[in-house]
Amino acid sequence: MTDNTYWAHVDLDKIPNMKTEAPGPQSKAWHERCTTYFKGLSGQVKLFPVAFESGYGCVLRDVDGNEYIDFSSGIYVTTLGHCHPKVTEAIQKAAGQLQNAHDFTTPIKTKLVEKLAEILPGDLSGFQFYDSGTTAVEAGQRVLRAATGKHEMISCFYDYHGKTYGGVSLGHIRSTVYGPTRAPGCHMVPRPDMYRPMWTKEDGTIDTDAYIAFYEEYLDKGTAGQVAGFVLEPIQGWGGSVMPPDDFFPKMRTLCDKHGILLMIDEVLTSMARTGKYLCMEHWDVVPDIVTMGKGFGNGFPVTCVAVREPYKESFESISASSSYGGNPMACAAALASIEAIEEENLLEHSTHLGELAMTRMEKMKAEHPIVGDVRAKGCLMGIELVKDKATKEPFDEAGKLVYQKAFAKGLAWIPAGHILRMSPPVVMEDDVLLKGLDMIDDAIGETEKELGY
Length: 454
Known about the structure:
Elements: H1 25-35, H2 43-47, E1 52-56, E2 59-62, E3 67-70, H3 73-76, H4 85-95, H5 107-119, E4 124-130, H6 133-148, E5 152-156, H7 165-168, E6 186-189, H8 208-221, E7 227-232, H9 248-259, E8 262-267, E9 290-293, E10 304-309, H10 329-344, H11 347-368, E11 372-378, E12 381-386, H12 397-410, E13 412-413, E14 420-423, H13 431-451
Parallel strand pairs: 3-13, 5-6, 5-7, 7-8, 8-9
Antiparallel strand pairs: 1-2, 2-3, 4-10, 9-10, 11-12, 12-14
Helix pairs in contact: 4-10, 5-10, 8-9, 11-13, 12-13
């Protein structure tokens, strides 16, 4: 990192800067006006209905003038911070030149696919672009079917793959609007969770082989023998930043190859420096057959990608792959500029460093607080799991809600997930800003413990 980057300094004597009790009067007024018409809000907004008006780097400002440290990145999206000048300039230039040309070739699209082929691992060399993560996942499912001639898919408990019927059928979302069943051929199996393992060895450590053995049995007994692929998150985001054991994905790669099944990895949340790599799967030296990328791919601009390995890229030809907005010049400009910023500012390395720094600080919280059961981080993807008792590991949803609200009121914009506190700070964050944010969470946990009698 260098001192001449736009994000190089946040004055911690001034940030956070809470001028009113938050949410303030202007936030409440704007929120009431908006929600007269705008419905279906996320849980984080319902818990803390603040109205934001601007952001720059790692700082968010609300309509009352309160300034917050951003530990959310707009729900894992603004990985490079808000309004990164390189990305902003690229979008502005594209918007003034050509805003859409359907799926015709453009120079900026060509440069983007060439850059992706250069930076992604293995032979991931076939690409198609979309405007949302869910749309990309659905396209990836169609590629699975086209490439294999099979229709069944297997995902894992607590996975999240979007809100369309195809995505929901692979995830842990229950809603009557999707009908009484998952889409035909969609199966779910347990996944290794190092804090809450289903199967362990004699020494108490997680038994990854037991999970793989169960998958073998399930393929034989629980499916119709028409499994096109496993569809998995590398790290479960909505599930609470749940990290797999290091031997899980190498063994999954072996299992899929053994049975002629494709491995599709949903990296909408984890790609593009979020975990310290372009793809999170690089941490385990595993190349997926199909991978989806999004969120931080365009640093806030709605652009996502499906990438496939060389043997399967012609499958795009048979799935009606194009879309109205996918790959438009503004989207491609945002994605290419984001990749170039990651390269120029050494952000893969810095994301890794921030994750290591966070783990050291969070391990101290875990040792000092009776309700902190587990902490985890890989790059700038972090989580703190709150429990009523460390021995029983009973989830503590009430504490999660209180800690979220208390830290937000102090000036930390971040993400709740029931009893699991999720953090995704921009990868351009300075060390002392990260540590101050974690100190605010530490204080909020302590206040919550006193309030709840711990």
